[in-house]
Amino acid sequence: MTGRRTAGLRAFRATLVGTLITSVGLGLTLPFTFVYFDRILGLPLPVVGVVVAATSVLALGASGAGGALADRIGLGRVAVLGLTLQAGGTLVLAAAREPVLGAAGLAVLSMGNSLVWPSLNGLVVHQVPAERRSRAFAVRFGLMNAGLGAGSLIAAATVSVSRPTSFHVVYAVDGATTAVFALVLLARLRGTTGWSAHGDHAHPGSDVRYRTVLQDRPFVAYLGVLLALAVFGSAQLQGPWAAFVAGTGGSPQVIGLGFAANTVAIISLQLPVERWTRGLRRSRLLVACALCGALAWVLTGTAGFPGTSATASAVLAVSALAVFGVGETFLSPVINAVPNALAPDHLRGRYNALNSATYPVSKLIGPPLAGVLIGSGAPSSWVVTITLGLLLTAGGAGLLGRRLPSAVESPHRHLSR
């Protein structure tokens, strides 16, 4: 058992190294999808929006298929497959000189991404002891944000619309770092627990279907809270938030500083927050996340009040994303720990796939909602709607605590017995 645990921890450390490497590459390209398609590949912005939405639909379908595949052939194998697709799609984007090839690359990239993260989340259960899993998820989230921040800073200093080649270079680097991650996993995870399946043959009397997962009422209730957090929270963070700030007089520099503040808050506070909140119920962490998000949107709305000085508006807008980042540190120890605590091994791929599917679903709901509200002539209605949405979500998270099994809701209390 000791040798098995040691092998698992080594595999998890390899995953952390690969996460950091690929996150730096992703940070080089993440802010530029719309700009790349519009200014470099010549696709009008409204059409770019349709392309991005379509890839979200593909990602959702791939997530469902990937969960079933992981339960059949193994989480590790699906993670490597997903990284291979992601790397290939990114390299196609790097080579694209017209929008059709670029859209094809983005589609393959999105589908690969939908296979990778659910599989890696499920593998943590096999790699890390139960008492350390919340911290493991938090560490990986913090490293991912550190890599994204570093990559974004490099991109800001090197990428320019006046030099289209610079875009092709950063996409090529992004694809290369993803390929390196695939090789790291292939070398370090093969043969470890979770690489192969825990599927039908291991549980011949089990009903291995998504229908079985959706009969787990505590899990479905958790998915509802997570989807609401995403629709009124993370799905509003990039395009909608930036559009509101710009529409109320904020400069591109203020927007950039806001995202920098968000990254700094996550990197500096993630591990301390995980340590300070380790004994709290998981539903209370979800409540804290929702309330931080609501406060962030109130600060954003205040920054856009007519008559607010430019300096005060900038401070409020930047502070808003810092507060939002604090909320994300409350979420990261919970978001992947809960589904893996509820999932049996033979359905772990499906549980993680549905958990990850909340992100593309939120992208189909949140940004269109924001577009209607911000473009309505009363952009403050956007602030009011998403703030109320998160306040209601906080109430739902509080009720969720009554539905979760006590070992899932308060794991440290049970582990200490």
From TrEMBL:
Record key words, sorted: Cell membrane, Membrane, Transmembrane, Transmembrane helix, Transport
Entry's localization field: Cell membrane
Limits of the Major facilitator superfamily (MFS) profile domain: 11-413
Membrane spanning stretches: 12-37, 43-62, 74-96, 102-125, 137-157, 169-187, 219-242, 254-273, 285-305, 311-331, 352-374, 380-400
PROSITE patterns hit by this protein: MFS
SUPFAM superfamilies: MFS general substrate transporter
Pfam families per the UniProt record, alphabetical: MFS_1
Organism: Kineococcus endophyticus
Bilayer disposition of the protein: Multi-pass membrane protein
Descriptive protein name: MFS transporter
